[in-house]
Design goal:
The chain is built from 1 helix and no strands. The protein is mainly α. The termini are far apart. The model has no long low-confidence stretch (mean pLDDT 81).
Length: 24
């Protein structure tokens, strides 16, 4: 379960970073 949570968190961070870069 922890692995899935960590994977989801990484995906969220990636999306956030991509959004920020796109916005910039």
């Amino acid at each position: 379960m922890r692995a899935i949570y960590k994977l989801q968190d990484t995906r969220f961070v990636c999306i956030f970073f991509f959004l920020q870069k796109y916005h910039l």
